[in-house]
Amino acid sequence: MAAGSLGLAVAAMGVAYPLDLGLCGFAHGLGPGFLGRAMMGLIHFMTSIPTMIYGFVSVIFPVPLVRGAFPESTGYSWLTAALTLSLMILPTIVLLVHAQLQQVDPRVRLASAALGFSPAQTLLWVMRPLATRGLWAAAVLGFSRALGDTKAPRWQRCWRLR
Predict the structure, then answer these.
(1) Which of 58, 91, 122, 141 is a Cys-bridge partner for 84, taking CB atoms 3.0 to 4.6 Å apart?
(2) Residues 127-158: b if buried by 16+ CB within 10 A, e if exposed
(3) What's the CATH code of the domain at 153?
């Protein structure tokens, strides 16, 4: 059980962490401002959803999708569990990375804009190195939450609809 929980947490982090970094980049100037604010509002809402609800919703949405993609499968698989778990840890990582990127001094951003950096270059070459500690902290806390929430596949079995 320990090896399965560890493997599932690693798989969920492999899906969630790059997605989270992309979402934070979108919220920090790579996308339209109103969409970034709406996305962050959705992320804040996702923090209030209990683990049991994620397990129930995963029976309704991802399980039939996996069952349709792999007809010989029941849909209750490692892939479904990893996708559900990555969705559960997404708010934790996004909010931590977002807070860390907001801590970067506005004068640094202004200086990079004065040097002619695009928003993507500023995020990649200026803000990311300054926020390295926060990125590591988000990864550790996200992995810890993933490891603690590996009970989601058990909720899928409890909510299995016949």
Answers:
(1) 58
(2) bbeebeebbebbbeebbebbbebbebbebbee
(3) 1.10.3720.10
